[in-house]
Amino acid sequence: MKPRAEQGVVDARLNVYGVTNLKVADMSIVPKNVGTNTYSTALLIGEKAVMIIAEDLGINSV
Fold first, then answer.
1. Do 58 and 30 contact (CB within 8 A), yes or no?
2. Glucose-methanol-choline oxidoreductase C-terminal domain: which residues (predicted)?
3. Mind listing the pLDDT tens digit for each residue in 28-48?
4. CA 11 to CA 18: how far, in whole Å?
5. Is residue 61's pLDDT more than 80?
6. pLDDT at 14 > cutoff 80
7. Which of 22, 42, 54, 55 could disulfide-link to 62, CB 3.0 to 4.6 Å?
8. Distances in Å between the alpha carbon of 53 and those of 4, 40, 56?
C-alpha cells in the first residue's frame, strides 16, 4: 500500500485508487519483498481486510 503519487494501487483501507466500491486484499498490496512466510502474511492481510470491511458495513460484532 503506497500513496497514489508513488505508483500505489490501494490505500490503507484497501480501496483501489480511481475506482468506487472496490477493495483488494491479496499479496499484491505488499509494497516490498516479504522476508517471512508468505502464508502468514496472506492470513494477516485477510484478517485485517475482514475488520476493515466489517467497519465499512457497520458490523461491530466481528
1. no
2. 3-46
3. 888 778 888 889 989 999 999
4. 11
5. no
6. yes
7. 54
8. 21, 20, 5
Angle (CA) 40-34-44 rounded to 5° is 30
Would the pLDDT of 4 be above 70?
Answer: yes
- Helix boundaries (H) for 1-62: 38-57
Contacts of residue 37, Cβ cutoff 8 Å, sequence gap at least 6: none
pLDDT at 46: 94
Cα first-last separation, the chain: 24
CA distances from 58 to 21, 30, 49 (A): 15, 26, 14
Residue 44: CA atoms inside 13 Å, Cβ hemisphere, count? 10
8 A C-beta contact, residue 1 and residue 10: yes
